[in-house]
């Protein structure tokens, strides 16, 4: 189990993870209107939140892990003092233009129906949710027995779970889109084509209807 600081240093030292984060942040910032507020759902140590705040977006952060939250409070202490970043004990305590969930936060849920219903009370109409999720079609995972054992589940149900301490679930995009309706519609999926087999993470953009 990583401490907040260990996770923070590990994620910043990984070129692959930095590249994924950079793409995610760029997409989020391109989508956000000037000065729009955002909820960083599962904010980790505050890396994304710090970037949003630096770009003029008031940012609420929700992080249920005490270890992550403690390091976030240290890493983002200046922004927290200036109230450009505000920590919340529940995502339901704010109303924002957008919710972001980076690095497989939503993969910790077995079902997203209740989550999207709750977030529909957080995201204003016309706003969005941007999520980075583990790609169930990533072919490099085919070397693992758990991936091969779940191919049938993926095809039939669009969902499978990996037995582990962290309870990670993998979802086909159509399953997440179905859980998001009728409050959100899937507006964009990245990647498509060959990238579906070669990228570990997929980005899903949901628009509040």
What features would you describe in this structure?
This is Methyltransferase domain-containing protein. It comes from Dyella koreensis. InterPro entries: SAM-dependent_MTases_sf. Pfam families: Methyltransf_23. There is one protein chain. By secondary structure, this protein is of the alpha/beta class. It has a single domain, classed as Rossmann fold (3-Layer(aba) Sandwich). Helices cover 39% and strands 25% of the residues. The protein is built from 10 helices and 9 strands. Strands 3-2-1-4-5-9-8 form a 7-stranded mixed β-sheet, sandwiched between helices. α6 links the parallel β4 and β5. α1 crosses α4.
Q: How do you describe this structure in short?
A:
The protein has 209 residues and is an alpha/beta fold. Helix content is 39%, strand content 25%.
Topology at a glance:
Elements: H1 4-13, H2 15-31, E1 38-41, H3 47-54, E2 59-62, H4 66-75, H5 77-82, E3 85-87, E4 96-101, H6 113-119, E5 123-134, H7 145-149, H8 151-157, E6 159-162, E7 168-171, H9 173-180, E8 184-190, H10 195-198, E9 201-208
Parallel strand pairs: 1-2, 1-4, 2-3, 4-5
Antiparallel strand pairs: 5-9, 6-7, 8-9
